């Protein structure tokens, strides 16, 4: 389904002559094709599932955010704008991210439900969160919140 949405978005962007969207969706599709080829080598003939595609796109967003920070430090406003524009395009295909308050509530519920009392059990909490909120939660922020709620 997500793969189809990406293909349709590329067609629409080409018709509208939207260069930023066209370029960004092409980058996503190229990365997806690379991952599909790797998955076929590992025995997955059908390619990546939607959850894997979402993870791929979240990784792309993370890379761009890191680039934005580097470009800001280097005084390259033109590249900052380009990267931020790509982030906006990629985020259109992902589920709505949880706010920090929603994350805190979800984490608190998981910690209470699983009876997590020490850092040793943090892996259990993170696994449960990834299972329940994959694609909607920023797990780099979540791990810090989990540490705070345990400690």
Which range best describes the helical content: under 10%, 10-25%, 25-40%, 40-55%, 55-70% or over 70%? over 70%
Structural class by SSE content: mainly alpha
Total helix count? 7
Radius of gyration: 18 Å
CATH topology of the largest domain: Hypothetical Protein Yqey, Chain: A, domain1
What is the number of independent domains?
2
CATH class of the largest domain: Mainly Alpha
The CATH architecture of the largest domain can be named as Orthogonal Bundle
Textual characterization of the structure:
The radius of gyration is 18 Å and the shape is globular. It is an all-alpha fold and 151 residues long. It has two domains: 2-91, Hypothetical Protein Yqey, Chain: A, domain1 (Orthogonal Bundle), CATH 1.10.1510.10; 100-150, Arc Repressor Mutant, subunit A. The protein starts with a helix and ends with a helix. 77% of the residues lie in helices and 0% in strands. The chain has helices at 2-16, 19-41, 50-73, 77-91, 100-114, 122-133, 139-150.
Explain briefly what this protein structure is.
The protein folds into 2 domains: 2-91, Uncharacterised protein YqeY/AIM41, N-terminal domain (Hypothetical Protein Yqey, Chain: A, domain1), CATH 1.10.1510.10; 100-150, Arc Repressor Mutant, subunit A.
């Amino acid at each position: 389904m997500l793969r189809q949405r990406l293909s349709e978005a590329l067609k629409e962007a080409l018709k509208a002559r939207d260069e930023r969207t066209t370029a960004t969706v092409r980058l996503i599709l190229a990365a997806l094709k690379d991952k599909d080829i790797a998955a076929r080598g590992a025995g997955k003939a059908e390619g990546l599932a939607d959850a894997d595609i979402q993870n791929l796109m979240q990784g792309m967003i993370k890379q761009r955010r890191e680039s934005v920070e580097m470009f800001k430090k280097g005084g390259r406003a033109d590249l900052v704008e380009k990267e931020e524009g790509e982030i906006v395009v990629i985020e259109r295909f992902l589920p709505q991210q949880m706010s920090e308050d929603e994350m805190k509530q979800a984490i608190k519920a998981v910690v209470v439900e699983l009876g997590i009392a020490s850092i040793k059990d943090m892996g259990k909490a993170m696994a449960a969160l990834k299972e329940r909120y994959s694609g909607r939660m920023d797990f780099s922020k979540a791990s810090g919140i989990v540490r705070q709620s345990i400690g």
